[in-house]
Amino acid sequence: MAKSVPATSRxxxxxxxxxxxxxxxxxxxxxxxxxxxxxxxxxxxFFGRRQVMTNTPTNLSQxxxxxxxxxxxxxxxxxxxxxxxxxxxxxxxxxLDNVSLDVAxxxxxxxxxxxxxxxxxxxxxxxxxxxxxxxxxLMEGEPITGPGRERMVMFQEAALFPWLDVLQNVxxxxxxxxxxxxxxxxxxxxxxxxxxxxxKFYRSHIHELSGGMKQRVALARSLAPNPRILLMDEPFSAxxxxxxxxxxxxxxxxxxxxxxxIVFVTHNIRExxxxxxxxxxxxxxxxxxxxxxxxxxxxxxxxNDPALSQTSIPITAALKNHLKKSGKIAEAD
Length: 333
Fold this sequence. Notes:
The chain is of the alpha/beta class. The protein has 10 helices and 10 strands.
C-alpha cells in the first residue's frame, strides 16, 4: 500500500511549480498529483478561493467598477533613429539600422518581414526588455527604460503556470496592481475570461486546455492589468488554421471594444492584413523599414475575404522583391 505524501513534499513538488523534482520517482510524482486533485475535488475553496460568478458581463459599459475607474487610454509609441547591435564572441550583428517609426494611440500595427529583419527586436525594445544601441524609444514622449505594467507582452507560447488554474493564471498579473483587493481581482479576471469566451473553464487546469484555449487564457492575462499597449509576438503561429481564424475574430472584437495600442509581429501577410490598421514591411540584414502599408478595410475582417486577398497582393510582391534582392529564398504567406 502506497505511503501518504508529506505536506511539505506536496507543497514543494506541485504547488510551487516543481512537478517532478529530481529526488522524486515517477510513482511518487503521481501520488503527489493525485493527492492534490483529490483535495481540490473535496474543497472548491482550496487555497482560499471563493466560488466565482461566471455570468460576468463583457460589455464595457457593464464592466466592473475597478476597470471603469481606471479610464486608461491607449498610448503613442515613437522610435527615433533606432539601431541595435548584438555582440558576442563570434562578432557583432547589426539587427536594426536607423529605424524611425510612430505608432498612433489606439492603432493596430503589424510588423512583417523575413526572419532576421528585427521584428521581435523592435517588440523587445518597446517592451523595455532590451535597450537600443543608438537612438531612443519613447512612449508619450518619455524614454522607455525598462518593463512596465502599461506595456504587456504576449509571446508565441502561452507561458502559463501549470500549477495554477485558469482563473489564478489571469489573476497572477493583477497581484502587483495597486488598490485592488482579492475580490476585485477575481471580478476583473472573470470579466476578461468572459471577453475571450472561457468563463466556463475558469476552474480548469492548464493541461486540460487545447492550444487555442491556452492562448485565450494568455490573452486574458495580458489584458487584465489594463495595459495601454499590447505587444504580441507571433501568438497564433503554432495553432491550426481553424483555431487561428476564431482568434482573429476574438482579437478584432477585443480591439474594437478596448481600444488598445497593439503592435503585432507575424510572418503571415494575410494575417497582418486581417488584423492591422497599418503594416510595416521590414527588410533584413540589417533590419530597415522598407514599406508602410495602410489597410482600409472595415471590421470585422474575414481571413478568407477576397478583398483581403487583394490587399495582401502588393505587400507579398514587395516582400518577394526584397527577398530576391537579398538572394534569399523564402515563402511569403
